[in-house]
């Protein structure tokens, strides 16, 4: 990796071997924070490895030590925390933390894990090493894609810019909602990589891919709703109007949807088990309108999908099957809900008192650790695009001179954003001086 190497091979192995699942009650605790920092380092190193194409040791370590199921369980645990505990925290009227960054780190944890999974699931052996938890991951992706479909009727995700009257917790809720949309896009990529494994031969007697294939086949209508054709594109945490000359250009998100559809419809295993009802046939045939010559030039393999849809017009539909079906089901979400049912208020109260009300000294120590974790040179190397203004999301060229973490397009935006950024900025700067 050269100068941008973040973790030495031995160090990366220690971090991977130490990964474990945390109960909801321990979200945000000292041990949990240490693992979050370790995950961020592994995440950035995995992206650096993939960028320079010089082997991907993080992916290999996760498979070797059997930690992919651990990541899936952590992902679903923090998803449940955000749905069940975070809203309780936001409703506590007398909870006015001086700094919401400790809570933000828990909210952001889901994005960190799904980003790491998106990077490593490109390799089919990672999907195989997920074992039975791949079913839980498929259901997780289904929930996120349903969110995308629901929001498609709203036109856009919530804007990142806050109101002057918002308190810190309300601002955090808005950030979490915007982050949820970006997480859903990552989940779409993960689902596409899972579909790549539909025909893969597994080394156990009962092939798990058949179980997750049955689960994925229920998602065809959702995937269809994500097909290309919009006049706006979500990039860089915001909606951008696509110029007429660019509307036919295939973008990454569109490509992931088409490849997933290709895998689900043309795989021999999928075709052998798919029940073609009249409703499903009608939905699938609508895809023909999007298979333009321009699209086929960019993804030539879709010509096979075009031929399949042409044959589908002559295919007789089948009534829904009423046979007895034995199907393996995901367990993580139901187990976590069963273990914590009726305890959400108690968990929130415990975390308010012991986790999310740190002293000024604790915040300074944590800021120092954050500064050590998020190295600026590495962040710039893994960034997919140019920095964006923290206030208006425009392309930014100026960085906060004190903490060096936030970017701005102009002095005016920096001044407007200071009320929100100031406390975190001071803590980060103090952490740097404490090194």
Summarize the structure in words.
The protein has 435 residues and is an all-alpha fold. It has 3 domains: 1-159 and 166-205 and 330-383, no CATH class; 207-327, no CATH class; 392-428, no CATH class. It contains 21 helices and 4 strands. The protein has helices at 9-17, 30-52, 57-64, 68-84, 86-91, 101-120, 124-129, 133-152, 168-195, 208-216, 220-225, 252-266, 268-273, 278-285, 293-298, 302-312, 332-340, 344-354, 360-373, 376-382, 411-434, and strands at 232-235, 238-241, 398-399, 407-408. The strands form 2 sheets. The protein has a two-stranded antiparallel sheet with strand order 1-2. A two-stranded antiparallel ribbon has the order 3-4. A hairpin with a 2-residue loop joins strand 1 (232-235) and strand 2. Helix 4 (68-84) runs antiparallel to helix 6 (101-120). The radius of gyration is 23 Å and the shape is globular. 31% of the residues are buried.
